[in-house]
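Quick one, tokens below. Sequence please?
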């Protein structure tokens, strides 16, 4: 013969698997009618169904409270705008909670009076142009031109006589020359030097197909996420 305590224990064990159908937390009668027992010895009493429903309500309230506490902790440790970094392929959307957006191909850079918060910029490679190149000292060899000449024999007494010249020097005739005594027209009485010339120099250096310059500092690639919600 089973005693009352044994019967109660069996009832509690049986009711661990109670099926709740359509319970809204307010309609007690509906909740009782929706409960069933798997016990072959004791049916589920109305009072026991009420107690179970109350326990379920408390359990659900505890779950909601726990979710609220977790969300509060998330906001404390990772408020919106926080950055999550990891060397692993971890998605904080599924592990931490909240809404996270992945940051790709960017460094983090501290704000200043010159760089405002949230601004973006920079490139990983750059090709120099003329404005990027400082002044350079270049030595160029230019074709050499001989600048030599001579003149001689300044003594002259008659027309056509006078100094002689060569190279870049030349003599020319004066229309009237006052020599010793009477004037002698047509004498070579002057020397002229003309060394006028010009030089053109072209110097080319560099590569006609320049390679882009690497702007990256030493780095280690990680995953970064920004919380946006």
């Amino acid at each position: 013969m089973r005693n009352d305590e044994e019967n109660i224990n069996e009832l509690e064990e049986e009711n661990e698997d109670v099926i709740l159908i359509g319970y809204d937390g307010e309609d007690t009668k509906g909740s009782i009618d929706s409960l069933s027992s798997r016990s072959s010895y004791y049916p589920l009493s109305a009072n026991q169904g009420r107690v179970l429903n109350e326990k379920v309500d408390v359990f659900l309230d505890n779950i909601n409270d726990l979710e609220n506490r977790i969300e509060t902790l998330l906001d404390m440790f990772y408020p919106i705008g926080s950055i999550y970094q990891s060397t692993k392929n971890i998605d904080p959307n599924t592990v931490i909670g909240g809404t996270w957006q992945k940051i790709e191909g960017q460094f983090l850079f501290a704000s200043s009076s010159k760089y405002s918060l949230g601004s973006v910029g920079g490139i990983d490679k750059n090709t120099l142009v003329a404005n990027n190149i400082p002044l350079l000292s270049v030595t160029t060899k230019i074709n050499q031109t001989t600048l030599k000449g001579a003149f001689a024999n300044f003594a002259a007494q008659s027309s056509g006589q006078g100094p002689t010249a060569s190279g870049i020097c030349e003599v020319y005739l004066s229309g009237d020359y006052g020599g010793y005594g009477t004037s002698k027209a047509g004498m070579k009485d002057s020397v002229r030097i003309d060394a006028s010339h010009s030089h053109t120099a072209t110097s080319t250096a560099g590569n006609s197909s320049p390679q882009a310059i690497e702007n990256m500092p030493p780095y280690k690639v990680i995953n970064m996420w920004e919380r946006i919600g």
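The radius of gyration is 53 Å. Residues 15-25, 27-34, 175-183 have pLDDT under 50 and may be disordered.
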